[in-house]
Specification:
The complex is a heterotrimer of chains A (about 375), B (about 280) and C (about 325). Chain B is an all-alpha fold. Helix content of chain B is about 70%, strand content about 0%. The chains are: A alpha+beta (about 375), B mainly alpha (about 280), C mainly alpha (about 325). Chain A: GO terms for molecular function: ATP binding.
Chain lengths: ~375, ~280, ~325
Amino acid sequence: MATIELRDVTKDFGGVQVIHGANLSIEDNEFVVFVGPSGCGKSTLLRLLSGLEELSAGEIYIDGERIDHLPPARRGLAMVFQSYALYPHMTVYQNMSYALKVARKSKQEIEEKVRAAAEILQLTELLDRKPKALSGGQRQRVAIGRAIVRDPSVFLFDEPLSNLDAKLRVQMRIELTNLHKQLQSTMIYVTHDQVEAMTMADKIVVMRSGHIEQVGAPLDLFNKPVNKFVAGFIGSPAMNFFKGQIISADEGTYEAQLDNGTQFKFKAQAGRLTVQDSIDLGVRPEDLQPGNTGAGTLMGKATAVERLGAQTYAYLSSPINENMIIHYAGDLDIQSGEEIEVSFNLDSCHLFGPDEQRIEFEG
Amino acid sequence: MSTLNKKSGDLGTWLMHIFLGVNAVIMLYPIIMMALSSFKTNQEIFSSPFSLPKSFSFDNFAIIWSQTNVPRYFINSTIVTGLSVLVLLVVGTMAAYALSRYKFKGNIMISLFFLSGLMLPLRLAIIPLFIQLKALGLVDNLLGLICIYTAMSLPATVFIMTGFLRSLPSELEDSARMDGASEFRIMVEIMVPLITPAMVIAGIYNAVPIWNDFFFPLIFIQSPEWKTLAQGLTAFFGEYSINYGVLYAGLTLAALPIMLVFIVQSRRFIAGMTAGAIK
Amino acid sequence: MAQRTATIKTPFENALARRRQLRKLWLVFLLFPAIAILLTFVFLPMASAILYSVYEWDGLVRGEFIGLGNFQKVLLDPRNNQFLINAFFNNVKVFIALMLVQNGLALILALFLAREPKGYRFYQIAFFLPVILSTVIIGFQWKLFLNPIFGLVNTLLRSVGLGDWAMPWLGLPETALGAMILVNAWHWVGFPTLVFLAAIHRIPKDLIEAARLDGASEWMIARDIIWPLMAPAVTIIVVLTFIGSFNWFEIPYIMGGLEGSPAYSTDMLGLLFYRTAFGSVSAGNSDFGTGSALAVLIFIFIFTFSTIATRYLTSREVELS
Ligand SMILES: Nc1ncnc2c1ncn2[C@@H]1O[C@H](COP(=O)(O)OP(=O)(O)OP(=O)(O)O)[C@@H](O)[C@H]1O
Ligand SMILES: [Mg+2]
């Protein structure tokens, strides 16, 4: 039960700015996922929110109240760490009850809350064990349980599943989604995993070197990335980019030529581009199809082919992009080393101007 | 088995075993003789020095117990060693905790300050120390010894504890902070319990030399009732200089407690005592 | 923006400032006791020692400033400096002998123990056992053993027919120092042994395996692989032995007495310092001034040489990556 607002949040470590004025609103009960390359400041942003780091400038509001001067425990947040950070010398029960004990809750209340959380997470059997005697997945659940007992209005997760094996991750992903439904609380979740981000999030926040690049629903980000970085970051395998140049501009009607000679016309906001502007045309692997049925065609030499039966990934090298990927839904009989032709349709492409910002096609 | 130990049965291996064995005998035999002689009478020591005692009589020990100050020395040494190590571990761990877990201006300076303390041989400052303690009324006083030992061993303790405390993950601390624990509680309830093995090592590292020291008591303690065991033995040797059985019993008694602990806890002892020399 | 800072932010900044203040207090609470103790009982006396050495002293009372007068007395007055030179060379002998006997033996023992022979744990405990005992116990015990008439050493020699070798070990100027050095080696050999052993164990096993596959003999492995790679431990032991040798006090004090008997053959800088500072038959009355000067000189000597030695020895260390 909480809305969160960050205003011009800035953080520097010994003079090096790592968060540059972040603005962000989070609705009540939203599941928000932070993604971005390693070192872009996701953890730092989370720690600023939690109070583990002090802001260098800016303000943070929870439910309209400014909280950035409060110590972590008084912000009504709970955090689950990547390494779980369970207290090794305490039993599961003691781990889960520690926050309540610190808050001087009555024995009875502590017992009730811990039991209830243990029930939700199927930890009842394990309450007397020490963390050392638990599996990775169980530890993860204890870490979550420790957060639940505090009844926080916001849960913060910093890459909570990255230490688990693939199968457990899928399972925990589903459990967490269910938990979110059950607890009806706001959750902020940092991950490196595309699938986690796309499947779990109500809203994804894409970050790059301390800046928030785009905020939006998963499919909005996928379909309408605001810039080349987001376009390349969201979606797996990543989007293919082809460089080109504007060769004529006339009142919102433009003609462009890709570096391999392919030319195409499009309409966009008048004056947005001028002749000789460099552009990037982005085509997702699934929008690049073998054959020459599309509007633009390219030649590429297959360097590797992965035939999975239901789908095929082919890695192509061509002068315009040495590492193109095509994703074909079905089996495609190509051999490595083969020269093939691929094509795309303009309406499934993304265009980025010289400033790497998205250029919306019109008409 | 070590990969170093590939061949066995050849001449070199035999030589090695003989060398190690002879050396072990040389190391252990004197200690065993000391213990055995403590059960002997003077005549027995002269007439049959190498044989087992005729009977394991505790007469010599009884003399020590009832007629000498050795029990008193023993208590004094226990008090001095116990309190010094206690204060050292508390104060040293506190300082090490600040240096290892917090970033603050002056952290490096203060670390260097402690490090430089490692290189100062306090024995050479014995004169000013004497005058200073005299002024504080701490000469001929166990408290004076405790102050000296604590100060002298602090740099190494801070050094050892800092190393161990650094190795604890910071997420534990963060997690406790999220749980609302105060900095004090985080230290006492979360972090310190995790380094108890390190505290044992640091404790042994300090306790053994303090228990064994006799240089500082030699200078700072005069009254018989405040002498420590190591120092008291010198007085005791003067008194009983002709009763060898009693002398051996005194030595055995002084060596016994620390030897027993060592044999039970040898791993920790070795780790503890070499803690300063092994990186 | 500036206005907002002034009006709205203040209460928040106050709260933050309070928290920062509290954190500062906490750090002070953690650090203050240790710093205070160390300053009072280590740094202050060390600094005072230097100060004291430039004053004249009458018992516990500080007299006039006399510059380097005390140093002159220690170094140049023939009545003092003959003791100083004698003691200094005795310390040098101790250092060299301990390097050869104690540390040399330790190295051999460590190389053998590194092969983890049968009885490995037992040997470790046996070699280390004397290390944990007080020098007083060791000193007196060996004094009893070395007693010329009924001491175990001579009794043993006689019983195996080496009666000619039996002698008053601690009573002869030719043998006293050697005997004490051997006692010290017996006392401490376990320490360098286990430090060397730990260093050898830290050498990656595959390095030694690789050398063995290359056909190197055990001796070549020890010389070409183990020895260079255990250099850090050697540095530490050499420096510790150096400091220990020039601070040597307990064994000669107990076994030879304050005057380094017989005939000053076991006199050491530590004993001389003690006599000068606190008075004795040969040194006369207690003199804190010359005592402090001597202490400062010993400190400067030890500090300089151990720093140089550390520098030199560290330069031959190789990084294990
Ligand atoms: N305590 C600190 N002191 C100095 N710099 C820091 C500190 N913590 C983080 N940084 C720097 O801030 C930047 C952001 O780090 P952060 O941990 O937030 O990245 P991240 O997005 O969480 O990366 P990852 O995906 O690898 O976890 C990095 O460049 C990092 O080096
Ligand atoms: Mg991170």
